[in-house]
Amino acid sequence: MATVLTRLACAAAAISIAGAAFAQSVGDRISVGAIELQNLPAQTLAAGRCGLFLWSKTERPVFILFATESPARALVRIGNREHRLDRKQASGEAVLGHYEKQTFAGGKYSFEIDLTYDREAQLKDGAVIERGVLRTRDQKGFVTVLPVGGMIGCQAT
Fold first, then answer.
1. Domain assignment of residue 78, given as a range
2. Distances (CA, A) of 48 to 1, 29, 63, 108, 127
3. How many structural domains comprise the chain?
4. CB-hemisphere CA count at 13 Å for 139?
């Protein structure tokens, strides 16, 4: 578990060095169109499982999405409540159970994620996200794009 947390801290540092993006975070939240994503608490992985950890690429990174490969589900925090969203679509290459393109949806929320993994990074039990975006579409059809970064971390068995 310590190695997963160490990797997460490194990923957060790398994201903050990457520079400001188009959206701006305010404390522990970031507005993505009409949706305000809030910072998630630390997440625990079960032995033998891998998790996708995404932060906003903003001046103050916010941990906005956590996804598991089995069950294929994402966790976000909106309106002081955690929402579990099922993976509805996936395409591209799978890395440790997480695809380059994924759509997570549930209730009135839907997020599309496009990721490029760093093939050169030598990470044991994980993968670094070289670049990524999170998209959401409002009821009028307007799309908001948020640059994201992060990693996949796996808990050893």
1. 2-154
2. 11, 31, 23, 32, 15
3. 1
4. 3
When mean pLDDT is compared across 5-19, 34-48, 116-130, the lowest value belongs to 5-19
* Structure confidence at residue 137 (pLDDT): 87
Distance CA 98, CA 28 (A): 26
d(CA 40, CA 62): 8
Structure tokens belonging to residue 129: 């996200």
92: how many CB neighbours lie within 10 A of its CB? 14
* CA atoms of 124 and 13, how far apart (whole Å): 18
- Measured CA to CA, the distance from residue 55 to residue 46 in angstroms comes to 21
Question: Does the pLDDT at position 107 exceed 80?
Answer: yes
**Measured CA angle at 111 (ends 103, 7), to 5 deg:** 85
Look up residue 15 and give its two tokens: 């994201």
In this predicted model, what pLDDT tens digit does every residue of 127-156 receive, in sequence order?
999 999 999 988 788 899 999 999 999 998
pTM: 0.82
| Mean pLDDT, rounded, of the chain | 85
